[in-house]
Amino acid sequence: MPLNRLDRPVILGIVGDSAAGKTTLAAGVAEILGKDQVVTICTDDYHKYDRAQRAENGTSALDLKCNYLDIIENDLNSLRNGKAIIKPIYSHHDGTFKPAEYVEPKPYIVVEGLLGYSTRNMRNNYDVKIYLDPEEELRVLWKVIRDTTKRGYTEQQVLASLEKRKDDSPAFIQPQRTFADMVIQFYRPEGKENEVGPGLNVRHTLRPTLPHPDLTSLLDVGANKGITLDLVRDNDGKPVDILDIHGSIETPRASKLEELLWTLIPEAQHLRENTRSIEELEKINIISHPLMLTQLLIAYHMVKAALGHHAI
User: Fold this and answer.
1) What percentage of the chain carries pLDDT values higher than 90?
2) pLDDT for 11-37, tens place per residue?
3) Residue 3 lies in a domain
4) Does a structural domain hold residue 113?
5) SS3 letters across 232-246
6) Residue 261 sits in which domain range?
7) Cβ–Cβ under 8 Å, residues 226 and 218
C-alpha cells in the first residue's frame, strides 16, 4: 500500500531570504522522504528579468513586481491537483534564463524560494509552511561563502548587493514569516562568532497551525542537555512553543530525539532506509545534529500530511 494516502501530492513550502539555507534544508527533507518520491521546484525561476536587465533597470529580484506571481499561483495549483507544468528555469550561476522544463508532480512536492507565501492563492496550496530566519550576520556569512564559491561574485560585489537590497527584505521577504507553521532560526552559540556549520544552534518556533509532536518525554526538568522546549509569545503576541536544539548536543541525546520522531510515524519506517542515522553519520564526522533533526521534523510533518492528519 502506498504511503501517500491522499489523492493528491503533499506540498512543502520553504521560504526565506537569499542564502537562508533553503536549498540545503530542501535537499535533506527530500532525501528522507525518498528522492524518487519528491520533486523540488524553486519559485525564483519565475523572475521577470535576468540579472543584466535588473542591473539596467535598477530593480531587485526580491521585488514582487519583478516576479510572475500569477504564474506561480497557477503552477502550484496545477501541481496540487496532480497536473504537470512547464516551468521556467533561472540560472543563479550566470543570471540568465534557460529552456523551460516539463515537471510532473510526485507524491511530495518541495517548493523553495524567496516569495512563496506572497499571495493568498500561493499559500492555499501548501500543506506545511516553513520560514527560514537565520541570525542575520550568519546569513551574510553564508551568502558571501556561497556567492563567491558558486555564483562567480567577488566578496565586494556580494556586500554591495546586500546593501542595495537592504530595504527589499523588510518589504517583501520578512512579512511572509507570519504565514509559516514553523519558523526556523539557525544561530551561532555564544562566543563562537566564526561558527557557520555543524556547531550552530537551531531554534524552532512551532505555531499551533500544525499538530506538532509531543517531545516532552525528552526533557529533563532543571537539566540542560542540548534540548529545551518553552512556551512563549511570538512577535505577534500569540503563544507558541520554542524548541531549541544546541549544536553541542551529545550524539546519544540527539539519537533519542531521532528515535522518538520515527516512533511517532510507524507508517513510514521504510523511509529510514533513505538516510543514515545520527550515530552512523557521527562515526564519519559529517553530522550537524540540529540540521538533521530539523530535516527529520519537517519530514515527520510531510508524512502526517500525506496520511491526512492535517490536510487542508
Assistant:
1) 69
2) 999 999 999 999 999 999 999 999 999
3) no
4) yes
5) EECCCCCEEEEEEEC
6) 10-306
7) no
Q: Which of 110, 128, 127 is nearest to 30 (CA)?
A: 110
Grid coordinates of 77:
495549483
Query: Looking at the domain assignment, is residue 140 inside a domain?
Result: yes
List C-alpha distances in Å: 121 to 70, 116, 308: 9, 10, 21
Domain count for the chain, please give it. 1
> What CATH number has the domain bearing residue 22?
3.40.50.300
Cβ-Cβ contacts under 8 Å for 295 (sequence gap 6 or more): 25, 28, 29, 31, 32
Predicted local confidence at residue 295, as pLDDT = 94
Is the separation of the CB atoms in 265 and 276 below 8 Å?
Answer: no
Q: Is residue 110 domain-resident? A: yes
- Contacts of residue 300, defined as CB under 8 A and 6 or more positions apart, other chains included, come to 213, 261, 264, 265
3-state helix, strand, coil in the chain (%, to 5): 40, 20, 35
Residue 146 has which C-alpha cell?
Answer: 556561497
CA nearest neighbour of 88 among 40, 27, 41, 135: 41
